[in-house]
Amino acid sequence: MGIEKYNQDENSEYIYEPQILQKLDFSKSPAKFNPQISAAQPGEDWMVVRPLQRDDYNKGFLQLLSQLTSTGNISRKQFDERFTQMKNAGGYYVTVIEDKRISQIIGAATLTIEQKFIHNCSVRGRLEDVVVNDTYRGKQLGKLIVVTVSLLAQELGCYKMSLDCKDKLIKFYESLGYKLEPGNSNAMNMRFEEPS
Fold it and tell me: Where's the N-acetyltransferase domain (predicted)?
């Protein structure tokens, strides 16, 4: 089952074309899965790995993100506007895992693509907003969603993939092929007040 057939109405509109997920070769990842799973075969018939859909507003996507950080009180109109902006801009690959038994989003990660002049006008990937629902942890879903998005970056021609993470997650990301680069492993931020 895994990757569902892709028929579209307005509410099932995808943020990116889902067929690209079928091309991902999990043998290219240094991550080890036991048992073996992939985006196409996530390990349970009731799970599907797919791009974010407009209707995921009604499937708990924002509630899932709130397990990671503050999301605010986002209306359906705001969600639809942001979905349209991200889709039209291109370069946003929000990927989710859905529990189809209850029509709920249980995992998510975002790949953003930066257009560069360096490396012969190449593109760089950034891994953002990785989260798995608390009640589904221990099923390799964090590993599955990160590897899926990392392989997607490779498929899209990224020359590298970067992420920021808490110190306690370094070993997890190292097990998936990410490396701290000596002399270049600092994450610095400038935070601005949130608009009221």
Answer: 47-196
